[in-house]
Amino acid sequence: MRVLITGGTGLLGKALLYDCNNQIEIIATYVGNYSMQDSGQIKYLQLDVRDKAGYMDLFKKFRPDTTVHTAGIGSPDFAENNRELVRDINLNGTGNILDMCNKFNSKFIFISSNGIYDGQKAPYSEEDNAEPVNYYGEVKLQGEEITKKAKVPFAIVRPILMYGWQYPFERSNIVTQSILKLQNQEVVHAYDDVYAKPLLNHSCAKAVWKIIEENKYGVYNIAGADRVNIYQLITKTAEIFNLNKSLILPVQQGYFNELTKRPRDTSFKTDRMEKELGIEPLALDEGLSMMKRERD
Questions:
Q1: Is the peptide bond before 123 cis (omega within 30 degrees of 0)?
Q2: Is residue 12 part of a domain?
Q3: CB 3.0 to 4.6 Å from 94: which of 59, 109, 143, 168, for a disulfide?
Q4: Is the pLDDT of residue 296 over 80?
């Protein structure tokens, strides 16, 4: 089997490559100003999703059976301030990859986001209405809409708040940001009125590989087991990593003066993930403990 992964050095891309079956031939694309070392079955290629000619050449040569499209800009604030760029990458780039999948008969897996929900009616199932509250969520939803018009088999994966060890040259996540601050004895302010079911990147990767290997289609909301607020998430992180909890201070939405609104509670129902993929949601303390073991 041949699999193409866009955004192969991002948080999910890293886990997908770490957790892959060694019988699968993989090309992982990325855009950063760094070099990645090929390893056995995995080859890296520096290629922007806006480069349609470059992807045409790649698809002609590689002919992937499945394409996992994780690439994109993930910051709601950046999206709000850079709408044209984010639309070009997150939506037009998705269209470019989907066009190649249609031309070369590659199954398409689109990585969406919990940001498509307004946060007012949790917990959310796959059938609940998507009502984004910011531009990032709007563009992700539009990516889902063009995916649903695909001429090839497709799946849409919606990860919730994802955490795990990222590459040092990639964007950090809420858990790794907090670990670094606490290690430096810095105060961490955390929302106690914003809720999610945090998702370890390896758990999301496991779900994606199940979708690929078992030829699953449709939409999947992927989440961890525990509904917690951000303050509880960071406090649990401090407990697992033996860091100073007294440095963590609860605050309410609006404290950070973000450029754009965030949904208050996007917790997912995980029935489909459990029944169709056979994946039990991972408890938060277990996921954080796995992170700690991975680093120790």
A1: yes
A2: yes
A3: 143
A4: no
